[in-house]
């Protein structure tokens, strides 16, 4: 059904809004010039450090806030209301016949930046709502007798509040006074290690006045850049010491490095021995679909991680439960199941509960459902002895709240928690996809991503070429996206069906799987695609399922298992 807005004195129509946007866009096609050495920022109180001094906001719409800020300790927050678009303006002294660059950093709701009274062509620019700071910039030229202009920001009717910081009017000095330009910040102090896991080190440091960001160095090499005063460096080797330093940055440059601190990753711990460097994951079916019915004790010894499929959704959003299919599994009892989990753990295996599957209907899309998910999975871990959780949500997920859920679960379960993921190929084509975002968000607590290289259409490889399933190139070129997209090699595995009956399409022989593993880990047995480097730390492989593997005489685990465990 179509919906229309009616023009009235109290309502802006959609057509009016669209026309305004078009006009704004037409005014943004400008070329931002390079400031000369003599140029100054003619705006005063450009960072709102002195409240609203020098600024006037319509209808009391503006105020200063301490968060979020881009630099310094304050920023403008202006809230449109009714017929007011939250316009905040300042009169700026300028020189006649001169060119100026107008800029500001904005976030939040729709935000506009413009100038009037130029004596030539007044200009403006805008951006839709943004959850992070975004720079707006345009240029204007003053008329032959223009000595002052009015610069302004405003939002849009009925939209959310916008934030602005670091307004600038760069050009010849108009004589009205200026804010001092940025200077290179000092080196951060107070650098300390705030926490460690077996694969990460968390750091904190003191705020540096005037800094807009910070760069973290590990053993002298830049590893990450952040806007706040903390960072977690991931993808590290267990039981290893690293040296860390931090610098502060802003528009003027980068500070000297801070004094170094040493962070040492932990030795992996948990029920039974730690996972081997290279591991094989297999899904165990808690149902009978024609594959060999197994008790957990029957699962082949080559499997290092056993994912119990599946936990089920409940009527409580985000919450899951697990019910052993005793009848379908030949009278397998809960007590036997728990005992088998303990026996596998004693043999060095990890047993996780898998959430999702093709027909899974678990949804985590807000804070409440994230809490419910974490609490219910942790309850299952306590009840059955699971080592962690596998995320196999094939109908989409929300990166923000799944991240929140898994971090909450980690805080409950501790550093021994095992988290595996089994996205489809389409889910890992880009780091902007929700599955990929989630994996990167929890990189410091993530065990492995075993993407499903089956039931897939043709996909892009990391070289931008299209590959079809069923070949070494399909496996290696798609795995390369994850390996070059900031996942550690130890967090990447290849997921394939154990037999032709294990999936609708995409089965390849174990020899193809092994060739792909060799190509990625050692640079040998590649197809036409050659990865840009080797990844000897590659975690291994996964299959659906241990049951279909058993149906086929354990041909998959018998061939792939020893090969994985023999990787360098």
From TrEMBL:
Record-given protein name: chitinase
InterPro entries listed in its UniProt record: CenC_carb-bd, Chitinase_II/V-like_cat, FN3_dom, FN3_sf, Galactose-bd-like_sf, GH, Glyco_hydro18_cat, Glyco_hydro_18_chit_AS
UniProt-annotated stretches for the region Disordered: 249-273
GO biological process annotation, one example: polysaccharide catabolic process
Pfam (any one): fn3
Residue span(s) of domain Fibronectin type-III: 187-268
Domain (GH18): residue spans on this chain: 278-568
One MF annotation (Gene Ontology) recorded for this entry: endochitinase activity
UniProt xrefs under PROSITE patterns: FN3 (PS50853), GH18_1 (PS01095), GH18_2 (PS51910)
Keywords associated with the record: Carbohydrate metabolism, Glycosidase, Hydrolase, Polysaccharide degradation, Signal
Keyword hit for Transcription regulation: no
SUPFAM superfamilies in the record: (Trans)glycosidases (SSF51445), Fibronectin type III (SSF49265), Galactose-binding domain-like (SSF49785)
PANTHER family membership: ENDOCHITINASE (PTHR45708:SF49)
Signal sequence coordinates: 1-37
